[in-house]
Every structure is written in structure tokens, then in C-alpha cells.
């Protein structure tokens, strides 16, 4: 009499924060968003400070 092997059953799917690949994608997306927000704040602050002091930017000095 042979014993039939039991079918390998998997339990419920683990939550996404336990999946290493999904967690890595989420952290990378958050990092990209944080860097983009940081750059927008820095650029906006620089533009506001330059306009408050009447400093113009550009390459117009090359035509003098």
C-alpha cells in the first residue's frame, strides 16, 4: 500500500508590506516623490529670492 503525497497547499497570500519586491518598489517611489518635492521647494525658494532682489537669470550676458 503506497501513501499518496499530500497536495502542497499554500496559505493565504501575505500582505503587500511583507513582499520584499513590492516593499522595495514602494520605498523607491516614496524616495522619488521626496526628491521631487525637495527640488520643487528649492527651485521655488531660489526664484522667489532672486526676484525679491531684482536679479535676473539667463544667458543674455553672452550677447554683450
From TrEMBL:
Residue ranges crossing the lipid bilayer per the database entry = 24-43
Q: Which UniProt keywords apply?
A: Membrane, Transmembrane, Transmembrane helix
Q: Which domain of life is it from?
A: Bacteria
Q: What is this protein called?
A: Amino acid ABC transporter permease
Annotated organism of origin: Candidatus Halomonas stercoripullorum
Amino acid at each position: 500500500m503506497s501513501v499518496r503525497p499530500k497536495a502542497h497547499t499554500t496559505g493565504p497570500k501575505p500582505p503587500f508590506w511583507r513582499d520584499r519586491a513590492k516593499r522595495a518598489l514602494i520605498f523607491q517611489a516614496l524616495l522619488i516623490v521626496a526628491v521631487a518635492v525637495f527640488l520643487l521647494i528649492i527651485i521655488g525658494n531660489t526664484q522667489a529670492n532672486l526676484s525679491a532682489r531684482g536679479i535676473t537669470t539667463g544667458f543674455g550676458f553672452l550677447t554683450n
